[in-house]
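Case study 2.
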Amino acid sequence: MTRDARVARLPARGRRTVQLIPVERRDGAGIAVRRTGGTTAYPDASCRAEGNREAAPVGMGCDRQGRTLIDPDTGTRVEVLAGGGGGDTVRIGWG
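Prediction:
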């Protein structure tokens, strides 16, 4: 799988639901990216405390089921619809 296959590129407007595989794994999209400007973008990632992160706590930026994150600067809203060992289902909306 190429690096590009690990990234779900999202449209600039509307909503999209994406299944993200933890970035610590090699298969599937682990990161969703929405372009917010000419040189800026909003990323969202699924991560787990495994592999290189096994001994470290997973940060607050990682998805948790039922959590909603809103970026007031870009208007991006990330809703974590489901989560589990296999990854996270997120809905990203804006515009």
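The chain has a mean pLDDT of 79.
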